[in-house]
Write a structure and sequence with these properties.
By secondary structure, this protein is of the alpha/beta class. The chain has helices spanning about 10-15, 65-70, 105-110, 115-130, 140-145, 150-160, 165-170, 180-190, 200-210, 230-240, and strands spanning about 20-25, 30-40, 45-55, 80-85, 95-100, 135-140, 195-200, 215-220. It has an eight-stranded mixed beta sheet, sandwiched between helices.
């Protein structure tokens, strides 16, 4: 059996102050950051601060042991979520928060079958313009929680007349299986003051309330409506209960 490699003390001295543990009801979340992340946002460089987190059944203050185990676990096979923070997020009175579910096709490829890529960029822009906020990028939310491979099959069904809810349910999935609990644990560690939530989804507001995260209010995020995603957006409203956009014709 290959012996676990010991971490160089100098390496650990650099990392140790950037790691913190968040205890949950069922395990621990290890949060690493903040890390400076200059982001190209519509042609301008904006400086965000990036955090990433990892769930673990091991609850310990021995962060060195956690780091030493990383090389023996293929974390690339499972994605980890993270958060982009802008401004003095902990202390400002008015901060925006966006819980953004990963969308491989929309965020990376710029697909117009959904509005996810637009929402990602627009949320980051609003957070910057507001002067303070955080965008949570939730890696296990692909296809509202069904995964990328299953999402590809639902796309085939959608090309044959199914809407997004029908496609998910026809494969045995519920309409939406996303869970925001871990992200809300991280949010409460980073900020205790109320936030304004960027969302069209009432279920996200319910999640904030259940987690006892104080909210100032909600701001909608509609846009990029086209022939390619009109049915998708209509289904969000008619079947998933999303708030109707003001002044937008679907």
């Amino acid at each position: 059996m290959e012996q676990q490699r010991k971490l160089d003390p100098h390496v650990f001295s650099i990392l140790q102050d950037k790691i913190q543990r968040i205890d949950t009801d069922y395990d621990a979340i290890y949060l690493v950051g903040p890390i400076q992340l200059p982001v190209n946002l519509y042609g301008e460089t904006s400086l965000f601060h990036w955090y990433c987190w990892l769930n673990s059944k091991v609850v310990t203050d021995d962060y060195q042991s956690i780091i030493e185990k990383l090389s023996s676990v293929n974390l690339a096979e499972s994605q980890q979520s993270s958060v982009l923070v802008y401004g003095d997020f902990a202390n400002t009175d008015n901060a925006l928060v966006r819980m953004h579910s990963i969308c491989h096709t929309g965020d990376i490829f710029g697909s117009k079958r959904c509005d996810c890529g637009f929402q990602l960029r627009e949320a980051m822009t609003r957070i910057k313009e507001n002067g303070s906020g955080a965008l949570f990028y939730l890696a296990n939310h692909e296809g509202r929680g069904i995964g990328l491979f299953s999402k590809a099959m639902t796309y085939i069904l959608q090309e044959n007349g199914y809407d997004t809810v029908e496609a998910n349910e026809s494969l045995g999935f519920v309409n939406d299986s996303r869970n925001y609990q871990d992200a809300l644990y991280v949010l409460k560690r980073l900020r205790s003051k109320p936030v304004t939530v960027i969302t069209n989804n009432p279920e996200k507001l319910v999640a904030f309330k259940k987690a006892e995260v104080p909210i100032n209010g909600r701001t909608p995020l509609w846009g990029d409506i086209s022939e390619y995603n009109r049915k998708y957006l209509q289904t969000k409203i008619n079947k998933s209960g999303h708030f109707q956009p003001e002044g937008a014709l679907l």
